UniProtKB/TrEMBL annotation:
Gene3D superfamilies from the UniProt entry: Spore Coat Polysaccharide Biosynthesis Protein SpsA, Chain A
GO biological processes: glycolipid biosynthetic process
Record-given protein name: Dolichol-phosphate mannosyltransferase
Cellular component, GO, one term: membrane
Upper classification of the organism: Bacteria, Pseudomonadati, Bacteroidota, Cytophagia, Cytophagales
Chain ranges of the Glycosyltransferase 2-like domain: 7-172
Organism: Algoriphagus zhangzhouensis
Molecular function in Gene Ontology: dolichyl-phosphate beta-D-mannosyltransferase activity
Amino acid sequence: MDHRKLVIIPTYNEIENISDMIQTVMDLEGNFELLIIDDGSPDGTAKVVIDLQDKFPERLHLVQRKGKLGLGTAYINGFKWALRKGYDYIFEMDADFSHNPNDLISLYKACAEEGFDMSIGSRYITGVNVVNWPMGRVLMSYFASVYVKFITGLPIKDATAGFKCYHKSVLQGINLDEIRFIGYAFQIEMKFTAWKLGFQIKEVPIIFTDRTKGTSKMSKGIFKEAVFGVIWMKVKSIFSPYRINQTESIELDSPLK
């Protein structure tokens, strides 16, 4: 069966990477489609995407937003877009090549062939597979996942990973309007929610390579959100059990493009 596959990439000032990223994903086997969600990049990222839509008219899509509204809201918007359009598998990926597009195939196979509901491109499932990061940032990321597991019990070694594949049933089962966090903690909250709802998750080993072009969007505020957000998630799970979403209608936060 030829599943419909959509890769969602949020962008803000990624003009140095976006053209190469689009071409690389378009060249992969499996007929992946791309949805770029651009938060009003002043560097012209969206213009590059629009120009390339002539080359890939059926497979390259764009949603433009009017400001920097946060990673989590971009993905939620993309998830709703994907569900409305009937995609079977939906992926999260960064624009800066820290996630190798070739690994999309491994993430897809973990779900489509091995039967998992969600797969995660994991930096820590076979050791520490990170290239070009300062040791301080490697330790911060690694121990963030240890902290998440200690507080929540989430049995995932790379809890903050942002390279993922969802079967549509996961995104349908999560009440996307109740996802609270928009920064670093968003990635943790999505995994924690999927796990609490009983979906089967697999970590797929990847090598994470720090960006060589453009500027990182990491900040102290984003990290702080994650530290306190994890405690909130655990407390919420105790007093408000997670249930599969039964809502059939999916409202978009911005118009289709």
